[in-house]
Amino acid sequence: MDYFTNRNGLELACRFSIKNQDDKKISIVCQLSLTEIFILSEFLFENLNCNTFGFNFTGNGNSQGEHTYAGFERDAGDIDDAIKYLSSLGYKVEAIIGHSRNAINVIVYSALYGQVNKIIALAPRFHMNPLPKFLQDDLEIIHQNKEIVHSAFGRGWKCTWDMIQELINTDMPYYCKRAKGDIYILHGDADEINPYWDSLEYVSELKEKCKGHFTLNCDHFFIGVFDEVIEIVF
């Protein structure tokens, strides 16, 4: 495990998977927000036929800082810092890949910074209202107590009322209008977590910036179609 320092002075955990030592082109696979349960990201990190770089956002995995269920612009800053870190090592980032919440992060990154031309969003959510079901179930408790702490894999994850409000008020049309580069959307038609129809909203809002919209016969986690994702992505 390696680390790089972000703009806020926090150490973010990262890893390299180098397939070609002589090639200075590299792709970023945004690693999982909370835990290693999103095995698709791990599969892509290990199996893409190119040099790859994976890192945990602020407050996630082995990275320093406080976790948030919102904070898309903060996470976009982490991506920008990762790119600067890779540039300092002589690498040129060719693509950024994000799944689920991280798919939103990569689109927000493209809107705020846009230095990487190829953006790949896997199962992104467009509408934050209604909230994801696991947050809806706790909404009354969060409203009453201003926060709730979930425990997962031996770690506590706090969700506050301010985070909920930020999620609800996330303006994805705003980011889509300002997105730059070539954006590719992949979504499973049986996704019960981030509705498949959300991907069509992205296609509509991104317009000509969406260079490909791919529908796969799978759930949110792309179980059973990992190889197909690899073929589409690269």
TrEMBL record:
This is Uncharacterized protein. The lineage of its organism: Eukaryota, Sar, Alveolata, Ciliophora, Postciliodesmatophora. InterPro entries: AB_hydrolase_fold.
